[in-house]
Amino acid sequence: MSTLPEADNFIEEFIVEDLKNGKHDGRILTRFPPEPNGYLHIGHAKAITINFEIAKKFGGSSNLRMDDTNPSTEETHFVSSIEDDIKWLGYEWAGETLYTSNYFGELYELALQLIDKGLAFVDDSTAAEIAEQKGDIDRPGINSPFRDRPATENRDLFERMKGGEFADGSKVLRAKIDMTHPNLLLRDPVLYRIKHETHHRTGDEWCIYPLYDFAHGQSDSIEHITHSLCSLEFRHHRDLYNWIIEALGIFPSRQIEFARMNVDYLITSKRRLKLLVDQGLVAGWDDPRLGTIAGMRRRGYPAAAIRNFCLRTGVTKRDNQQEFDFLEHNVREVLNVSADRYMAVLDPVKLVITNYPEGQSESLSSDNNPEDASRGQREIPFGREIWVEREDYRKEPQNRKYYRLAPEKDVRLKSAYIIHVDGHEEDADGTVTQINATYYPDSKSGEDTSEIKAKGTIHWVSVGQGIDVAVREYDKLFTDPTPMDHEGRDFLEFINPNSVTTITAKGEPGLADVVADEALQFLRKGYYTLDKDSTKEKVIFNSTCGLKSSWKG
């Protein structure tokens, strides 16, 4: 046997153990089995990373299987969004996308086997009666009055359930295990229920559908999944997972649980995400304020940054809460190297260079990315009138170390000239309406022969050639880092009413040619990405994150 990679976490330790023991002839196959009832979120990104990266490390592969057993909530467009998200993250699954609905026939036959073995029965009890029968942690359950039906009667009833003879909720198929078992999930769990609803793939072919606990493990076995990696809330399901495998004598997939990953200010519950979408509190599943993969992509988070974040937070056995600042640290780390630089003025005030010839303009060169010379340069128009940030001007600087715009100060315009501020004009309220300056003609960037030294450099945009840019500035969607952790309070109480504001900025003309999903840096302001709704007529950018990290490490 060739040398095995070293295990970096407890899951990999199990895999190394299986490989050393020759289990499954050294084959490794994991799977990611989302339910297509919503968009994937940051917690799913963690699970995707774990499944695909571990399989790759040990020379294996991963299946993508849609857990589509509930026709009430599942839709085809959710399937497409899941596929797009996984591909965008940088992962490829083995073969075609698989579906639990592919196996409805096989699962039905497996259920008949349990019935014939006397290990499953059709129950006419209501949902409330079944819940009462199960008891609780301090009280053992009691047998259903229908538990001792003969196998032949159970088979007949189950076949008639499949044939559509019975109404929704009138009968279920339950496993016959132990109504006193300390694990409540093994107290005769429901395996099948009746649902006369159209399925997004099988149409009206079926009116009975397996529940998760019956469909999941058997689908793993049908696909010969070697290691079924899932989050910690499914630990108690493992006993049932293994019981069904043993009862049916099918392929013994191994379930291993890892801790969920939660992130401050982000929701990792599809049910609650759906509530936000349905109530119009966000602009769809891909709203940049959400922790959905589509939302983070729309906000400009690079796929590499999300992968890095998921890998760096590790694989643990305890649920953990990660800092939002650490997520942004990973985003900033990637964008600092990959993002091209542009100039945009978010709160513009006009600056007039009084000694620059009227009607004259020129083209200046600027580096696209100082971190990567291969990104080349771009041309930027320059003229007598430019836009600068209002916050870059002070009528009276408070200290000597202020190096931006102020009367009698010299300042470098990025990739252009050094200017000398002469003064300003203001309205009756004292608001500055125009800044006046002169420039040093021999101080042109890259050709500077002047003896003038400017300690400060600011960005700018030409008034004549600049374009209007709509900028959506995003803050956190919630005012509390863990809005779901307050007993007795609705998480919607913590919605931040100021989580998005839209301003009109002035941008250099090259911003009109940026493509969607392309994150960039507005010099001195932060990272931004072109929104999917942007057009040539209305250029829209979303704020991604600021330039400086607040993560303490």
UniProtKB/TrEMBL annotation:
Signal peptide positions on this chain: none
Annotated transmembrane regions: none
Keyword check for Nucleotide-binding: yes
Statement: the UniProt record of this protein carries the keyword Cytoplasm: yes
Polar residues bias spans: 359-368
SUPFAM superfamilies in the record: Nucleotidylyl transferase, Ribosomal protein L25-like
Pfam families linked to this entry: tRNA-synt_1c, tRNA-synt_1c_C, tRNA-synt_1c_C2
Ranges where the tRNA synthetases class I (E and Q) anti-codon binding domain occurs: 457-531
GO molecular function: glutamine-tRNA ligase activity
InterPro entries: aa-tRNA-synth_I_CS, Gln-tRNA-synth, Gln/Glu-tRNA_Ligase, Glu/Gln-tRNA-synth, Glu/Gln-tRNA-synth_Ib_cat-dom, Glu/Gln-tRNA-synth_Ib_codon-bd, Glu_tRNA_lig_a-bdl, Rbsml_bL25/Gln-tRNA_synth_N
Family membership noted in the UniProt record: Belongs to the class-I aminoacyl-tRNA synthetase family.
Protein name: Glutamine--tRNA ligase
Organism (species): Neolewinella antarctica
